[in-house]
Amino acid sequence: MSAPTDLTATQQIAAVRAGEMTSAELVDAHLARCEDDRWNSYLALNADAARARAREIDAMADKPPLAGVPIAVKDALVTRDLVTTSGSRMLEGFRPLYTATCVARLEEAGAIVVGKTNMDEFAMGSSTENSAYGPTLNPWDTGRVPGGSSGGSASAVAARQAPWSLGSDTGGSIRQPAALCGIVGMKPTYGAVSRYGLIAFASSLDQVGPFARTVADAALLLSYIEGRDPMDSTCVGLREPVCVPTATDLSGVRIGVVEELMGEGTDDGVRAAVREALDRAEHLGATLVPVELPNSRHGLSTYYILAPAECSANLARFDGIRYGHSSADTDNLTEHYERTRAEGFGAEVKRRIMLGTFALASGYYDAYYGQAQRVRTRIAEDFDRAFESVDLIASPTSPSVAFPLASRTDDPMHMYLSDTCTIPISLAGLPSVSIPCGLDAGMPVGLQLSGPAFSENRLFDAAHALEAAIGFDTAPPALEAAA
Amino acid sequence: MSARAYEAVIGIEIHAQLLTNTKMFCGCALSFGDEPNVHTCPVCLAHPGALPVTNAEAVRLAIIAGHALGCEIPERSTFHRKNYFYPDLPKAYQISQFDEPICGPGRFRYLTEGGEKELGITRAHLEEDAAKLIHVGGDGRRAGAEQSIVDFNRGGTPLLEIVTEPELSDAADAAAFLRQLRLTLVQLGITDGNMEQGSMRADANISIRPAGSTGLGTKTELKNMNSFTFIERGIQAEIARQTAILEAGGTITQETLHYDPVTGEIHSLRSKEEAHDYRYFPEPDLVSVAPDRAWVEELRASLPESPVDRRRRWVADSGLSFEDAEVLAETRELGDYFERVAAVAPAKSAANWVRGELRAQLRERGQEPWESNVTPAALGEIIAMAEAREVSMPNAKAVLAELIANGGDPRAIVEAKGLGAISDEGELEALVDRLIADNPAQVQQLRDGKDKVIGFFVGQAMKATQGRADPGRVGELLRERVRE
Amino acid sequence: MPRVIDADVVRHVARLSRLALTDDEVETMRAELSGILDHVDQIQSLDLAGVAPTTHVIHLENVLRTDEPRPSLSPEEALREAPRVAAGGFSVGRMG
Ligand SMILES: [Mg+2]
Ligand SMILES: [Zn+2]
Questions:
Q1: Is this complex's ipTM strictly greater than 0.95?
Q2: Model pTM score
Q3: Domains of chain A by range and CATH?
Q4: Which residues in chain C have Cβ-Cβ distances shorter than 8 Å to A324?
């Protein structure tokens, strides 16, 4: 029998239910891997509470649905009494007063939070190098980034430190690290999952979603976190329950291929792997249809106005008065604010706050924020039009595989370009999944499948059929070598 | 230059706390005067990840207020973030409304002694209140305090901000408008209108311009005055200040000012920061409010008569004085009580009795008329009897006292206590003759023209009859007899 | 409509954002913001007159909460994470 940490979440649940394994064994096995955290996936472990909860669940005759299986949670989600920093010095040592709705739902269903995962500070970044607590390393190659901002959640699952995890995606922060770490990552339709307890980056874009090593696990995880929440006015839940996918073919499925995202700017190896996956889709019965999303080329610009603008307000609450870092011995209020925030925030966060404040400032609002909101309308209309003739849209998740550490940190614009494939979908609020579809120079390549709003089940089915056909081995060779 | 060389242009902004059970965007209870920070939660403390959810009752109250202000209720209303840093604002943005307020333009009619007037309402919008800052040590003011402390109990209280057109030119009119606006909102249960506790606050935007011209001068903002009297005096003082500056050839600076009611002086408040740039943008955490049209109409249709309309009707139809009507309209209950008294007694007397004797007698018990043993019908009966001279005024008051103490039927009380007026003229004449015989010195004074002494005889007569004598008739008889 | 971001604009925006920046940081920020805005400015030239702005991607209205009190935090909890506490409140220190 394989090591408990090699099992998928679905297999772990089954094993506990069948009495073949205990929750305590699972928690211990994963915690052992977390404690040996060569990748810096975690910012905080929840070891004692997790072990205690495992014993509780093991003592239950009637096991809760998730049977005491471990989960890792991005540090952007608040967890009562468990230190939550959002990767920022600003929140060093901060113990939240409540637990995010999606985490509370998982805990209620019997999942056990083993720890909080590393991330780009306040979810701003594409490499997890912006964490105030050091970068996360890619389990496939520790000289490379895991992607971001949910890099810790992706690496934890890739490195078998948890069978699944939660991340958050604003412009690609689940899909891109999933692609770079060779696992499955899914961003639900905006409004499917409660944002209550998700430390806000850009409220109109942020969504919590699952990371897993299989599409079925990702779907199962989403089924527990989606749903209306009276604490989040923008959360409506999905329109139909998530079905764990079983599809094995794609007959009758029309897949739109975004040629703009397959051309210039995309690495040859990535393009090749994605093409190969699309060939497999055709073999499985899908029809490939070229689609145009003419406004998507403005996605990056639009995103880098809207997201910073929202973040400039969302991060204004970090003022050193009610919680978090507070600058010592300042003479007056303005100085206290300015020094607290200068000390607490890292460079990328400051950059985005500045950019967003600028975009909203009087005299600039119409030209920047207002204009970006109108482009956003156009981008969403492009997708509406495309989905009149196709069921799904396929593209690479990221134009390149995981890049070396520190290779893009000096050039913000270069870093931002990592998200060109994911951002337009975020702006349109659509569901999107990244599955591993091959390797380029030994590093995983992600295939991004996106659908119309609330088409999660269709998306999971297609992803599941392709996953089986591709047969990607999610175990990083480097991991085996190191073990 | 003549005194009328300048005219003032005044606009008012009112912030009224709404009478909801909970805060605008979270479930914390509203209260006043509790220990600090006992009504907080992650939402109103702006903890990371917390999100606002709009209070339905605040929306309902705002729409009712809009109807009472004569405002349109637009199809759609949205929230915006108003960004600025201040310790009483935990998110560093206030959730407010910007280009799509809950209540659109309207006109509010109010009464003055000079007649009925109307003031344009620009808009009324929903927003959340700031928390309370307490300055500790030093002189207790912001600038000199050793430290300032935030109490978030009030933070997030629902506010309706009402903005008027700059159409007022007179401080007294501004105060009259505000009094009647407050009364209207209070009587509809929208706010408790308590200005001392700050649940209703008013700011005035004031500029002056050469009389007869149409341009607008530089305006100043007079902040947070907490009584109508101070508002009136403050506006007057600011108009005088601006006039003096212009007459001396100076220019007005746009600034925020404070009126000190003790010294009568106006001070510049150090502005919160340099130039404001609130960077309003649509609140992504909230969706728009699109009130059901049928419901909006239902709320309009169920509005009770406003205190202003009541007053207008009382003056026009019932002949009440401006002042009577003003006093009686002060609370809905008092107005209702008066109307029920006036249904059985003449309106003018009903107004006098309710305003005067009834409230005076109830004062020491700390009771309001409608809470007392005196039913409007009973008071009406007393008034009717007094008017018909079936009881003397002093005995009518005595009946009222008995009613207040023990309740009952006025006629039965009069009967049981023998308080009915002496209707037998012969009996009164005999009494007067006896008083003249018994008090020769006072009679002499009366003969000498000291009319005041009649009071003495009336007193004696009342004493002798336990108040059943008609004092007026006693005086008349006395004069007749002495003159003879 | 490309904008020239000079040091004064950076300082103004930093003040609005309540971020203390050293002179070196002002210069770095100026260069970086200019670079980003050079890219972002591409949308300025789009003619989008008549296009409605998108604030929410999902079309929702009237999500309201009934006016029923929910339990509040104890003051101890509310103040638990505060850097400075005095007299039952959150201390701001000296304001002026
Ligand atoms: Mg306001
Ligand atoms: Zn609250």
A1: yes
A2: 0.93
A3: 4-247+470-482 (3.90.1300.10)
A4: 81, 83
